[in-house]
Amino acid sequence: MRRVLITGASSGIGKQLAQDYAAEGWEVTACARDGVKLDAVAATSPLISPLLFDITHLQETRRALQGRQADLVILCAGTCEYLDDGVVEAEKVARVMNTNFIGPVNCLDALLPGLAPGSRVALVGSTACLLPFSRSEAYGASKAALAFFARSLAVDLTQRQISVSLIQPGFVDTPLTSRNDFPMPMMITVAQASQYIRKKLAKGTSEIAFPPLFAFVLKAASLLPVSLQKWLCRKMVR
Ligand SMILES: NC(=O)c1ccc[n+]([C@@H]2O[C@H](COP(=O)([O-])OP(=O)(O)OC[C@H]3O[C@@H](n4cnc5c(N)ncnc54)[C@H](OP(=O)(O)O)[C@@H]3O)[C@@H](O)[C@H]2O)c1
Questions:
Q1: Nearest CA owner, ligand 1 atom 17
Q2: Which of 8, 113, 128, 208 has the fewest Cβ atoms surrounding its Cβ within 10 A?
């Protein structure tokens, strides 16, 4: 039986992925910190096992993950906090970087030594790092760091025959985005996001950005001169 380990499986995209992979017959290890929410996810299928740990704590993550086998690892846990008016609060930036960048690194530290040739690791970044969006200093930087890390790691893991995919969603309707107070164009449901991700991972795609039109527009804009990118992003500020 194929095995998938998913972080961030108590909510949003990760939860949907856990339930959909179980429905496809995969054995799912569903990871997060909230035991009540995770138990509710596990209750939906006998194929889902909950695993509680905080990805920002290295020792806790090693205890939880070391020696675990999986054909597919999806590092989906993440958070978002915005800066206001260019005020740089170091604690806020550290929280976002710890969860979105150091957290996946902690998981990889624990898991990679045990992964067999043929397995795949998928890191969930964001299309938000493609342009210098207002208030996104911390979130965008964390996802830009993750994107670079994923691509560089893909080069180095080729020799072990472990594949790396970078997943960059646009807006998906989840508890994370329900806190946003700005327009979110082309927003999709978690079911649609899960379908994109599972289809592309099954094909072995290494760069997965969706929804396609939204990702195309942002990628095209990211090729513009930086001064023009900043002009565009200033225009978007209300
Ligand atoms: N929604 C979007 O529009 C969107 C767009 C682009 C990228 N993304 C990315 O997609 C991923 C999932 O986002 P979502 O929208 O589904 O968010 P969500 O509904 O808020 O879910 C976030 C998940 O991350 C887990 N998590 C957060 N901090 C953690 C920690 N320190 N240790 C372990 N688990 C932790 C949470 O579980 P516990 O609280 O139970 O620990 C939860 O399961 C994130 O990486 C996000 O940046 C989302």
A1: 176
A2: 113
Q: Which atom of ligand 1 is nearest to the CA of 173?
A: 1
Nearest CA to ligand 1 atom 41: 33
Q: Tell me how far apart the alpha carbons of residues 86 and 189 are, in angstroms, rounded to a whole number.
A: 31
Split into its structural domains, the chain has a count of 1
Does pTM surpass 0.90? yes
Give the CATH number, domain containing residue 162.
Answer: 3.40.50.720
CA of 133 to the centre of ligand 1 (A): 20
Residue whose CA is at the smallest distance from ligand 1 atom 42: 8
Structural domain for 60, as ranges: 3-236
Please report, for the chain, how many H helices and E strands are present, in that order. Answer: 9, 7
Residues 27 and 51: beta-carbon distance below 8 Å = no
